[in-house]
Structures are given as C-alpha cells and as structure tokens.
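Batch job 17 of 40 flagged for manual review because the log was empty.
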Amino acid sequence: MDTQDDFIYDDVESMKFIKNYLPQELKEKFSDDDIYYIVDLIYDFYNSKGFMDENGDDDSEIEIDEEELTSYVIKNAKKDGVGKFLPEEIQFIIQGELEYCDSLNMFD
C-alpha cells in the first residue's frame, strides 16, 4: 500500500474546479489565465507568511486572514496590470481554491 498522501495537486484541475465554483457572471469575467495568476498570488501570499515552510513539523492549525489575502491579490493584480478586481470576486476564487484543496484532503 502507498503510504504517501493520496492527493496530487494539479494546476489544470484546480483551475477547472474554481471555474465551476464561480457564479455564472464571474465565469465569463475571469479567463483561465486570470485564475492561474490569482492562484499563484494566493500561494505567493502563503509563502510570504511562512505557511508553506517544510521545516514546520508541528500540526498546528494555520489561520489565514482572508481579508489580508484578498487585499494582497487585488494589490498585486493591479500593480502587475492584470486587472482591477473587487474583493467579493477574489473571495470566490480563494474559496474555490480552498474547496479544491479540501477535496484532495490536503488539510487533513
């Protein structure tokens, strides 16, 4: 039996999952590239906060400030000229990404 984690994170599957998660009006607003970009920003934020450190062996729960994460994404998207997004639009993508990760049991 395989003792490794059962999940395999897949960027394409993540994007498809998020696209499906979005309300209809946002499905048309966000391109696949926009979603990939925003997910990259989400993980940049996690890295900047030390959430992705492999040195942390403890199983302590990580608290993500979604408001701070949303602001980080909006600020960087605007700075990089990718687009001007509303907080509630970005929150749908963040929630979609979290749901995708949860579907892979990444948080267990």
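Reviewer: the log was empty due to a logging misconfiguration, but the result itself is present. The chain has a mean pLDDT of 86. Unflagging and moving on to job 18.
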